[in-house]
Amino acid sequence: MSLKELEPGRRPLYTPEQRLRRDASRWTIVQGVLAPLQLLAFLVSLWLVLRYLSTGTGETAATASVVVKTMFLYAIMYTGALWEKDVFGVYLFAPSFYWEDVVSMLVIALHTAYLVALVTGWLGTREQLLLALAAYFTYVVNALQFFLKLRAARRQGSSGPAAMLDAATPLATGK
């Protein structure tokens, strides 16, 4: 894969064949369902984490919420890889979603580092939740990447059942 292939605007997001495969993939609907659920988990967790960091209350709720949000992330990343295989023939790093997948790896790494810190006690609660906030920041960056990418795809003329799901999917690190 050349760097020119990875430049935005060089080719449509989906070829006509890929669009048909996207619309036919069961993972398209799964992504469309998981994306808003992960977004909701993120918003609730963000509120709980910020509340704990500012008041010192609600440690258990904040900690549990980060774990729940991380499980949604793992689910959407796993099913997203299956979706990418259905549509593009590769599990990750298809040219159309290359940079989104690169940033997704950082998102996963930071969320996983949080779980490791939680289980091992490697960091104190405050530091763990600050790590969670760093993970959440990368999640927001990644979600914006997907939002902009799929917005461009809609302008190219998406159709079929996946077109309706495209609106929700980018907000949750999905495809």
Descriptors:
175 residues; mainly alpha; 76% helix; elongated
List the secondary-structure elements in sequence, H or E: HHHHHHH
Count of domains: 1
Morphology: elongated
Mean pLDDT: 87
The rounded Rg comes to 17 Å
Question: How much β-strand is present in the residues?
Answer: under 5%
Structural class designation? mainly alpha
Number of helices: 7
Q: Distance between termini?
A: 20 Å
Main pleated sheet = none
Low-confidence stretches: 163-173
The count of strands amounts to 0
> What fraction, in percent, of the residue positions are helical?
over 70%
Q: Could you give a quick summary of the protein structure above?
A:
With 175 residues, the protein is mainly α. It has helices at 3-6, 16-24, 26-55, 59-88, 98-120, 125-155, 161-166.
List the helices and strands and how they pair.
Elements: H1 3-6, H2 16-24, H3 26-55, H4 59-88, H5 98-120, H6 125-155, H7 161-166
